[in-house]
Design a protein that fits this description.
Length: 349
């Protein structure tokens, strides 16, 4: 991760441009209208809502949800880098701290695909299509390696490759993903501290707490030992260390939620309801959706409180990523015949 520089920033111009882009995103009313359409109609509508060039690109060899999903991710990649490119000086560095998470996520995507035994052809056709030139470095890794150790070696020279090379023995995919998460947040917090952006620091620390909560809930379901649960805690969050210890030693969701609710630094509202829904559906989705909504609300709040700052730009990027997530969920849900109310319940407006 690049260190912050203090060259001339264009925060006024970049904030205005980000707000203009945000105004053009699909609002909740239009998203619900899309929900009433059939799969083919949705694909056509998505093209008319800002994704036409990418839809046309993938329509030459893909159909249905696969084409829409590839177009969505391609558009998001392009959009993120366009936004980053119109930021300058220290503003660019602060925005880059947030944007770098997408590279870490792609690294994890490559590792998952290789670990899952996906062929080079499947990865290229469905996961990292070559039409998106930003996938080229990742496809080179996929084509030139066999197995996780070779993939890690091929990533040497990158921040994520350096992180993975430090792991001893033959780490599992889960251990690799945990190490990448820890390194990203460690780098991000160090960089933000040096830049003096207190609100962005607070947001990152809240995000760490949310990530730790989901990881602990998942570990409970997998029967992970307390020692292992302690080791996967991402440092740097706002929750007190004594509370973290209680969370890691909880034996069920109820005890875990009770423990984390004792923290004066964690907003636990809604967790009880999410816990009941999680039990009903045997899924962590209710927790993930609640926490995602809380982070989105916090970013929105900071963007309004600091209109001339990195937050309008970061908030736009988050809103764009959320739009792509909602459209992907909509298209995939429709393609497999999920009821509209089920799809809508998983969407975050």
């Amino acid at each position: 991760m690049a260190s912050l520089n203090y060259g001339r920033s264009n925060v006024y111009n970049a904030s205005a441009r980000a707000k203009a882009r945000k105004a053009s995103l699909i609002d909740s009313t239009r998203m619900r209208q899309l929900l009433q359409q059939g799969p083919d109609s949705i694909a056509a509508s998505v093209g008319e809502l800002g994704y036409r060039s990418e839809m046309d690109l993938y329509a030459t060899r893909m159909t249905g949800a696969d084409a829409v999903e590839s177009a969505l991710f391609h558009n998001l990649d392009n959009d993120i880098h366009e936004v980053l490119n119109f930021c300058h000086g220290s503003l660019r560095d602060l925005v880059a701290i947030y944007v770098e998470r997408f590279d870490y996520e792609k690294a994890k995507t490559v590792l998952r695909a290789i670990n899952g035994g996906a062929s080079d052809e499947i990865i290229e056709d469905q996961i990292l299509p070559p039409e998106n030139t930003r996938n080229s470095p990742w496809l080179t890794i996929v084509r030139s390696t066999e197995g996780l150790p070779e993939a890690v070696e091929a990533m040497s020279g990158t921040p994520w490759g350096k992180t993975l090379s430090k792991l001893e023995g033959e780490p599992s995919l889960e251990e690799m993903e945990n190490a990448l998460d820890m390194q990203y947040f460690l780098n991000a917090i160090e960089a933000v501290k040096s830049g003096g952006e207190k609100r962005l620091l607070r947001y990152l620390r809240v995000e760490i707490d949310h990530r730790n909560l989901i990881n602990q809930l998942r570990a409970l379901r997998l029967g992970t030992s307390q020692e292992k649960r302690n080791s996967i805690i991402i440092p740097g969050g706002r929750i007190e260390s004594a509370i973290i210890k209680q969370v890691c030693s909880a034996n069920n969701d109820s005890d875990l939620i009770e423990a984390i609710s004792r923290s004066s630094s964690f907003d636990s509202s809604g967790l009880d309801i999410a816990m009941e829904k999680s039990k009903e559906h045997s899924s962590l989705d209710p927790y993930a959706e609640l926490l995602s909504h809380k982070r989105h609300s916090l970013l929105k709040k900071f963007s309004y409180l600091s209109p001339i700052s990195p937050f309008p730009v970061i908030h736009y990027i988050e809103c764009k990523a959320l739009e792509v997530r909602n459209l992907r969920l909509l298209v995939r849900g429709k393609s497999v015949g999920l009821p509209d109310d089920v799809i809508e319940a998983h969407m975050d407006f």
